[in-house]
Design a protein that fits this description.
40% of the residues lie in helices and 20% in strands. By secondary structure, the chain is α+β, with helices and mostly antiparallel strands. Bound molecules: adenosine-5'-triphosphate. This is Molecular chaperone HtpG.
């Protein structure tokens, strides 16, 4: 057996001391040193298993557990494995040269981009050297799995570019990496702190990790298994493992690709309801079962951030800057793939059990609509299964239509003179009841669009679906909402109409109200209040964006429409001019306000008193 020669050397790198730089810039989180060392230990163990499976290692594999231990007195943390180990030559190659070439590359980039700190925090194979973020001396004691040509070796480095290799006492195969913690990093000697870090990064590592007498990880999380081996319960249980005490997810997608990139994972659909502010960043990103981050912005499309679960891909570059990630070809492909899978899954659910899909629409509707808004590819699929919920009820449940079904359903009755199909909608079934019911009396259908993103959603639909416009039921009178080019005859003369208008203008005395006289069917209310679609929608949209905008600051411009054909209009005209006439007009206007829940406070009190007096 070849003995390890004592050796001192200089790590080949053209700077005195790169460690202060590593310490400062490499990772904002010092705690990831543990992730790096434990994953190296796991890699070494898995490599050995692989060698054994290829018949290149015939010894006993034994227990391959990796252990992490702390010696508070000596102020050391030790990561031990029983993996492939290293010979002295391999230490020179892998630790001094390879790992350092990463360091050198890092340094090069750092020099060029000193002005742009964030861009340099890249992935340069600096895993092992991240130990120097917390240690002022690092020791490796290792023995290779090979039968021949090996002796245990010790490598020591104090964070300068000098290292020392000496023979070591070690009879067992494997590696101990011993960190002598720097004074400013002693927090990592705390058992609970270490356990926290291990559980964060290592809870699904593929080799058992022992800490403080216990194994801390589940080595075979469900995303590593085949869907055919898994039951519904397994998926639900795993969801609880990821997010303890959460409400049950609606359903899930098992992701599994190996070409043109590697990706596995399980994405869950949570119950969203109307809650757009739901906590995002719940998807956890792993690379070969090592936790990387839960800030997956840029890795998954924005609308998918509403999902929960796990994505595991060795092809996603880690620790790289945001701008780099966005431009990365793999990340783009992954984005596209996940979007497609999610759309396909929704389509399958829709096709397989429409009723169940409709029942879940409350929860997934927000998600689907958000997807439609933000992703054209998603739209291409989602337009077949996105639903409109009608106020019409069948067997006690609201009726749902796809876009195509809906067009078929209403076009005969709701096409205007310009050949546009007009979709009438309500945002608040109760508050807009008077309008909804008027529309229904005319045989029109009304859909419910009460979601926070609906103003944006309908804008998008109008631009994507041909010849469809959306109008809220209270945006105008029905004859104008769906203008079929037919004029109702007025029972009032021009002169009477002008007079009626004057009476109402005088009673209302409000510059932001526009009074108009229209000839409507006699069974419509005598007075209606409308708020034009365009302005209202712009206001709603700016409210959602949270920005103060031109539209957001505009006052509401209500229209007061008086139905010339209603018998009460004639009654107003024939009433005695002055108090009696004004009282009647005011009463009709207040009734209109009341029907839209707009009559409040002193006005409401006065209305009630007036009404009581009239009835007395
Ligand atoms: N516990 C270990 N057992 C055996 N070899 C190891 C061990 N730790 C490190 N090595 C060797 O040292 C090399 C350098 O490790 P380092 O963590 O710096 O980079 P890496 O693991 O190759 O890449 P990454 O930057 O992704 O961690 C490894 O590739 C491996 O060959």
């Amino acid at each position: 057996m070849e003995a390890v020669q004592n050796e001192k050397g200089q790590i080949s790198i053209h700077t005195e001391n790169i460690f202060p730089i590593i310490k400062k810039f490499l990772y904002s989180d010092h705690e990831i040193f543990l992730r790096e060392l434990v994953s190296n230990a796991v890699d070494a163990s898995q490599k050995l298993k692989k060698l054994a499976s290829f018949g290149d290692f015939n010894g006993e594999l034994g227990d391959l557990k990796v252990s992490v231990s702390v010696d508070k007195e000596a102020k050391t943390i030790t990561v031990s494995d029983r993996g492939i180990g290293m010979t002295a030559d391999e230490i020179k190659k892998y630790i001094n040269q390879i790992a350092f070439s990463g360091a050198a590359e890092f340094l090069d980039k750092y020099k060029d981009k000193a002005a742009d700190d964030k861009a340099i925090i890249g992935h340069f194979g600096l895993g092992f050297y991240s130990a120097f973020m917390v240690a002022d001396q690092v020791e490796i004691v290792t023995r290779s799995y090979r039968e021949e040509g090996t002796a245990a070796a010790r490598w020591v480095c104090d964070g300068s570019t000098e290292f020392e290799i000496t023979p070591a006492e070690r009879s067992e195969r494997g590696t101990d990496v011993i960190l002598h913690l720097a004074a400013d990093s002693e927090e990592f000697l705390e058992t609970e702190r270490l356990r926290g870090i291990l559980e964060k990064y290592g809870r699904f590592l593929p080799v058992e990790i022992e800490f403080d007498g216990k194994v801390i990880n589940n080595t075979t999380p469900i995303w590593t298994k085949s869907p055919s081996e898994l039951t519904e319960e397994d998926y639900k249980k795993f969801y609880q493992e990821l997010y303890p005490f959460s409400e049950e997810p609606l359903f899930w997608i098992h992701l599994n690709v190996d070409y043109p990139f590697n990706l596995t994972g399980v994405l869950y659909f949570p119950k969203l309801k109307n809650d757009f502010q739901i906590r995002r960043e719940k998807i956890q990103l792993y690379s070969r079962q090592v936790f990387i981050t839960d800030e997956v912005k840029d890795v998954v499309p924005d609308f998918l951030m509403l999902l929960h679960g796990v994505i595991d891909s060795p092809d996603i570059p880690l620790n790289v800057s945001r701008s780099f990630l966005q431009a990365d070809a793999n990340v783009k492909k992954i984005n596209g793939y996940i979007t497609r899978k999610v759309a396909d899954k929704l389509n399958d659910l829709f096709k397989a059990d429409r009723k169940a899909f409709e029942e879940k629409f409350e929860d997934i509707g927000l998600f689907i609509k958000y997807g439609i808004l933000s992703d054209d590819k998603f739209w291409e699929k989602a337009k077949e299964f996105c639903l409109l919920k009608s106020v019409e009820e069948v067997d006690g449940a609201n009726r749902f239509h796809t876009f195509n079904e809906y067009r078929e359903h209403v076009q005969a009755n709701q096409t205007d003179k310009n050949e546009n199909v007009v979709v009438l909608y309500a945002t608040d079934r109760k508050q807009q009841d008077a309008y909804v019911e008027s529309a229904r009396r005319r045989g029109y259908d009304v859909v419910l669009l009460d979601n926070v993103i609906d103003p944006h959603f309908i804008n998008t639909l109008e631009s994507k679906l041909e010849k469809i416009t959306f109008k809220r039921v209270d945006a105008d009178t029905l004859d104008k909402l769906i203008d079929k080019g037919l004029n109702n005859e007025s029972v009032l003369s021009e002169a009477d109409q002008t007079k009626l208008k004057e009476v109402f203008e005088k009673v209302l005395d409000n510059k932001s109200l526009t009074v108009s006289i229209e000839s409507m069917p006699t069974d419509e209310l005598p007075v209606t209040i409308t708020l034009p679609e365009f302005l209202r929608r712009m206001k709603d949209m700016s409210a959602l964006s949270g920005e103060r905008s031109f539209y957001g600051n505009m006052p509401n411009m209500y229209n007061v429409v008086v139905n010339a054909n209603h018998p009460l209009s004639a009654k107003v005209l024939s009433a005695e001019e002055g108090e009696a006439q004004q009282k009647l007009a005011k009463q009709l206007y207040d009734l209109a306000l009341l029907s839209q829940n707009m009559l409040t406070g002193a006005d409401l009190t006065a209305f009630v008193r007036r009404t009581v007096e009239t009835l007395a």
